[in-house]
Amino acid sequence: MTGAIGIGAGVIGTAVTNRNPILRWSYFTEQTESIVEALVQHLQLTLSAVGIGLIISGALAAIAMKYQWTVGPITGTTAFLYTIPSVAFFGVLVPYTGNSAITAIIPLVCFTLLILVTNILDGFRAVPVAVKDAADGMGLGTSRRVLTVELPIAMPYIINGLRIATVTTVGLVTVAAIIGYGGLGRLILDGLRRAFWTPLTIGAGLSILLALLLDLMFYWLGNAVTPWTRRKRT
Amino acid sequence: MDTDALPALRLRAVRKRFPGSEADAVQALDLDVPRGSIVSLIGPSGCGKTTTLRMINRLIEPTGGRIELEGTDVSDVPATELRRGIGYVIQQVGLFPHRTIGANIGTVPRALGWAKARIAERTEELSDLVGLERVMLDRYPDELSGGQQQRVGVARALAADPPVLLMDEPFGAVDPIVRTRLQSELLDLQERVKKTIVLVTHDLDEAIRLSDRIALLNVGGVIEQYASPDELLRAPANDFVAEFVGDDRSMRRLTLATVGDLPFERGPVVDVAANDLEAQKIMAAHRSDWVGLTEGETFLGWIDGHELGSGRTLNELPRFMPAAQVTPAQSLRAALEVIMTSRTSVAVINDAGRFRGVVTLEQIRAGLAGDLAEQAA
Question: CA B341: distance to chain centroid?
C-alpha cells in the first residue's frame, strides 16, 4: 500500500507533456477490452453491494420497527461501520477472505447500511397514523397493509436512499482496486503506478459518468413509482 | 326470534383496562344500538368514547364483556373479516395518498376479491351517492379539498355495503360551514341507506343534530344517560348531564324541534269575505291587535285592528305581508327569529304556498315545557 501511495505521489509530480497527455485517445481503441471489463466489474460490484445492502437493511429496518428498543443499537452499529476508513476496511479483511470479490463486497455493503436503514425507517415513519388506522379499520391485515399501503408511501424515501447509497458506492469501488477488485479503480491505480495520465483520466472519468447515470436512473425510477407526489391541489 | 327487534349492536358489561393503567378506561358498559339508527357517543375527554367505538371493530380488544354484532359475538370472527363487514370513518380520513380516489373507495371490495367490473360499477355508484363528481375518481387525495376527502372517506366505508358504520369524529377536521353541509349530507344519505351508525363526537350540537339517540359518557365509560336528543335536553338524568348539556339547553331544543312538532293553531285569521264583526270577534278571542286575511289557502296579509269599523270592507283595508314566513319543517329557532322581527309577534306558517296557521312565543314556550318528540309522534 505504501508503495502505491509513493508511486501516486510520483505521478502527481509528473508534468503533463506531449508524451504524457491528460488523455491519449488511442488508448480507448488499444485497451477497449480492459476498459469494458473494468466498467462491467465496477457496475457489478456497485449493484451487488447495494442489492445485498438493501436486503440486509430491509431486515434490520423491519427488526427496528417491530422492536423499538433495537432502533438505537441498529443505527449505532451501522453508523460505526460507516465511519471505518475504506482503505483500512478493505485491507483488514485480506487475511481472512483473501484478494477476492468477497473482500471487496463486504465493506461496500457495510457502507450502504447506514444510508439505507435510516431512509427506510424515515419512509415508514412518513406513513400517517390515520392511514394505518384506516387500513387496519378496513380489515386489510398486517401484511397487506405493509405491502400495499405503507411500502408504496415509503418508496420515495427508500429510492432516495438507494440513490445516495449507489452514487457513494460507485466512488468507493475504486478504492477496492488496492485488493485487485476495483473496477475502474484498477485503471486509476494503473495510471498512478506507471505515472501515466491516460488510464487515470479514463478510470476517474468513467466512474463519475457511471455515478451520474445511475443517479439519473434512480431519479426517473423515483418519479415513475410515485405519480401521486407530483399532483397537488392548487 | 324477530330479527328486527334485535339491536344491530349489543354491548354487555364491556370493559377495557389498558396495560400499565390503574383504572378501567371503560368499566362494564351496556349499550344497545337499534338497527338503522344513528347513536352518538359523547362525553368529556377520557370518557372512553373512542375506546368503546374501537372495541366494536376490535381495533382495541376488550378486557372483558361481550359485543354482539347482529347477534354474533365479534370475538368469534377473525378481526380482518369482521372489519371488512363494518364501515370505518375517522377524523383525519386516512385516505391512501398513493391511490386514486376510485382505488381508495374500492379498497374493501378489492380485499374481498370482487371482480374488477363490479368494483368499478360500485365505485361510480358510491361517488354519486356521496355527491362526488366522477372526474374526481381518477385524482389523488392530495388534489381534493378537506370536505371532498371526507366524502370519499364515507364512500370508502360504505363500499362493501356494511350494515354498520363506525364514525370517529368524522367532521372534526373541517371548517364549520363544510361541517354543517357534511352533516346534512349524512342525514340525507342515511335516509337512503338506513345503516346502523355509531358516531363518536365531542360536539353536542352535532350529536343533537345527527342522532336518534345519544349516550352521554362520563369518565370510565359510565353511561350517565342514554336517550333521544330531545329527552336529554328536556329531562337531564342528573347534574352531570345537566351541566354537560349546558344552560342553553332550551335554545338547543329550539334547534332540534320543528314548527311541525308544535300543536300550532290557525290564529286570529278570517276569510277575506268576512265582515268587521267577525274580524273583531276572532281578534278578541286571540287577544290580538291584528287580524290575518286569507283567501282559500292563501295568506293575504295582516290588518291593524284599529283600521276596522271605518266602513270599508276587509279587502279594502291597508294590509301588509310579513317579510319572513316559516315552513313546518323549519326549526323552532327559525320560527323564533321570525317572531322577533315580526310587527305582529307571530310567525305565519306557509307550507308550499298553503296557509297552515301561526306560531306564537307562548306556543313555543309551552312546547318546550312538554315532550316535543312525543307530541310529534
Answer: 27
Identify the residue among A132, A133, A138 best suited for mutation to test binding to B, counting B beta carbons within 10 A and taking the highest.
Answer: A138
Total domain count, chain A: 1
How distant is the Cα of A218 from the closest Cα of chain B, in angstroms?
A: 19
Chains A, B: CB contacts under 8 A, how many?
Answer: 81
Q: Which of B99, B108, B139 sits opposite A138 (nearest CB)?
A: B108
Q: What is the ipTM of this complex?
A: 0.82
- Residue B348: exposure state from Cβ atoms within 10 A (0-12, 13-18, ≥19): buried
Lookup: cell for A72: 438505537
- How many CA atoms, within 13 angstroms, populate the side-chain half-sphere of residue A161? 26
Contacts of A227 (CB under 8 A, 6+ apart): B140
Cα–Cα distance between B236 and B238 in angstroms, integer?
A: 6
pLDDT in tens, B181-218: 999 999 999 999 999 999 999 999 999 999 999 999 99
Q: In A, which residues are within 8 Å of B111 by CB distance?
A: 138-140, 144
CATH architecture of B260-376: Roll (3.10)
Q: Which of A140-144, B49-53, B305-309 comes out lowest in average pLDDT?
A: B305-309
Determine the pLDDT at residue B310.
Answer: 80
CA B131 → CA B105, B148, B154, B206, B251, distances in Å? Answer: 14, 9, 11, 21, 32
Q: Which residues in chain B are closer than 8 Å to A137, comparing Cβ atoms?
A: 57, 59, 83, 88, 90, 94, 166
Alpha helix segments (H runs only) across chain B: 49-56, 79-84, 101-105, 107-111, 116-129, 146-158, 176-193, 204-210, 229-234, 239-245, 249-256, 276-286, 332-340, 361-369, 372-376
Query: Phi/psi at B165 (nearest 5 deg)?
Result: -125, 130
Asked, for residue A164, whether it belongs to a domain, the answer is yes
Residue position matching grid coordinates 353511561:
B223
Cβ contact, residue pair B166, A137, below 8 Å: yes
Q: What is the pTM of this model?
A: 0.81
Residues 6+ apart with CB under 8 A from B324: B337, B338, B341, B342, B347
How close does chain B come to A167, measured CA to CA in Å? 27
CB nearest to A131's CB, from B59, B94, B156? B94
Which domain range does residue A216 map to?
A: 31-225
What's residue A13's pLDDT?
66
Task: Write the residue in B83, B93, B140 that is nearest to A228 by C-beta.
Answer: B140
Residue A68 lies in a domain: yes
Q: What is the CATH number of the domain that holds A38?
A: 1.10.3720.10
pLDDT digits (tens, 9 = 90+) for A145-190: 999 999 999 999 999 999 999 999 999 999 999 888 889 999 999 9
**CB-based contact, A142 to chain B, within 8 Å:** no
Q: What share of chain B is helix, strand, coil (3-state, %, to 5)?
A: 40, 25, 35
Report the Cα–Cα distance between both ends of chain A, in Å, rounded.
59
Domain boundaries, chain B: 9-256, 260-376
Q: Could you tell me if A19 lies within 8 Å of chain B, comparing CB atoms?
A: no
Kindly state whether A131 is in contact with chain B, defined as any CB-CB distance less than 8 angstroms: yes
What is the CATH code for B9-256? 3.40.50.300
Phi and psi at A67, nearest 5°, equal -120, 100
pLDDT tens digits along B108-128: 999 999 999 999 999 999 999
Choose among B90, B143, B156: nearest Cβ to A231: B143
Answer yes or no: is A18 within a domain. Answer: no
Residue A135 lies in a domain: yes
